[in-house]
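Late entry, zinc ion complex.
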Amino acid sequence: MTRILPRPTALSQPYWDGSREGSLRLQCCDDCAQFQFYPRVICSHCGGANLTWQSSSGKGQIASFTVVRKGISAAYPAPYIVALVDLEEGPRMMSGLVDVAPDSVKIGDPVEVTFAEWSDTISMPVFRPAREFTGE
Ligand SMILES: [Zn+2]
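Prediction complete; structure with ligand written out below:
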């Protein structure tokens, strides 16, 4: 069973290239210095059209999460965790949470990005408990 793969566009290709290289890339506005996610053609804060891709710290905190207990197919074995992560740079992104038991996740937990290789071309950004938090 294979997962449903994202289809990069000209707009999102830098994001997926970064993920393959182990970097969570965000667009940053040259006019107002705000970051945004997901990729857009203009800044969601000021409407400016001058956006530059930058590597984020990959660090954030869990804003909310849910535990999915029935996967949609064998390619998505349950239980798994879907989380909203507030990135250090500001944007909130939905992602998977890995390397943690569903019953031990708490809102506010610090997390860091890691990448799940879904295909030869797609590495999916997911999050795990931050190392300094777990002491590993
Ligand atoms: Zn802006």
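The longest helix spans residues 13-20. Will revisit in the morning.
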